[in-house]
Amino acid sequence: MSTHLDARDPLVVDTHELARQAGALRRLRDTIEAPADLGIELIGVPEGAPMQLDLTLESVVEGVLVTGTVEVPLAGECARCLTPLSDRGTYRVTELYNYPGRQAAEDELFLEDDLLDLDPALRAAIVLELPFSPLCRPDCRGLCPTCGANLNENPDHRHEAAIDPRWSKLAGLGGDMTPGGPDNED
What domain of life does the UniProt record list for this protein's source (predicted)? Predict the structure, then answer.
């Protein structure tokens, strides 16, 4: 199934100069803009953020092997306290792009007219390594389940013990039990 890659797309790389000769190498060092939706619900690479590529494209018998790293800024929020997060991540890329006509599994990547699309390789390298529940710090205390206060900012935050709802109707039956009160005359 052909996707008709656009050679003008910054994530599409022309491998024509590798000439299907095993051992031929090409170095790719570039900074490109991050595509949309490069992340998971709580953390990801902001769309348009600079992604620094340091890749090697190597012609092998089966196709073109892409190896190297991508460094990206990350933005999101803490899974416990919802504090905004920002960080940088460096991710390892290793992906084989098969030559057209080669027998390979359906989910493997293929070259199209000497072009390869880095998008699926970068997504696999980055998204699969992102923390499912990112934290602002390892000992994040989160939010108060009763009122939503940030427990990192106010670690001594407390509430009065809640009355068990099964006993709440009895709370008013005792009257004023303080010494000298109307229900407790000494």
Answer: Bacteria
